[in-house]
Amino acid sequence: FQVKSENKKTIWNTEEVPEGSEFDDTWDPREKPEYEIIFKQHVGTEDVFFGMTGKDPSTACCEDIVIKIKLPETKYSDITLDIQDKVLDLRTPKKKLLLHLPYPVNSKEGRARFLSDEETLEVTLRVLRKFDFINSS
């Protein structure tokens, strides 16, 4: 089995490299900040009282991922945030976080806000789901 590549000098095919591995830097001395991943779903009375939509409390029914990252002694202007479909890359002068996300997200329509009182960056990302009997909208 041999894979043909466009460049004869490459030793691997681009499909073999996992997404987000270009961000990995094992030699970076910055510490990893504390973070928390929260799954969020939108429910209405038809879900709570009648169970009409078939949603349950599992992550399979969640529409958003909220990532809360503790960044003590950090200013908003020092934060660099890059979000790909499956990777969140956050860098500050003292901290670095490379997070492989549990589900693919819409990287173009997320939002982030820095809560200066709590010294926390809160990133909300919409999960990309295939339509099925639970996720129909």
TrEMBL record:
<dbReference type="GO" id="GO:0070286">
    <property type="term" value="P:axonemal dynein complex assembly"/>
</dbReference>
<protein>
    <submittedName>
        <fullName>PIHD3 protein</fullName>
    </submittedName>
</protein>
<dbReference type="GO" id="GO:0030317">
    <property type="term" value="P:flagellated sperm motility"/>
</dbReference>
<dbReference type="InterPro" id="IPR041442">
    <property type="entry name" value="PIH1D1/2/3_CS-like"/>
</dbReference>
<dbReference type="GO" id="GO:0005737">
    <property type="term" value="C:cytoplasm"/>
</dbReference>
<feature type="domain" description="PIH1D1/2/3 CS-like">
    <location>
        <begin position="32"/>
        <end position="128"/>
    </location>
</feature>
<comment type="similarity">
    <text>Belongs to the PIH1 family.</text>
</comment>
<dbReference type="GO" id="GO:0051087">
    <property type="term" value="F:protein-folding chaperone binding"/>
</dbReference>
<dbReference type="InterPro" id="IPR026697">
    <property type="entry name" value="DNAAF6"/>
</dbReference>
<dbReference type="GO" id="GO:0045505">
    <property type="term" value="F:dynein intermediate chain binding"/>
</dbReference>
<dbReference type="Pfam" id="PF18201">
    <property type="entry name" value="PIH1_CS"/>
</dbReference>
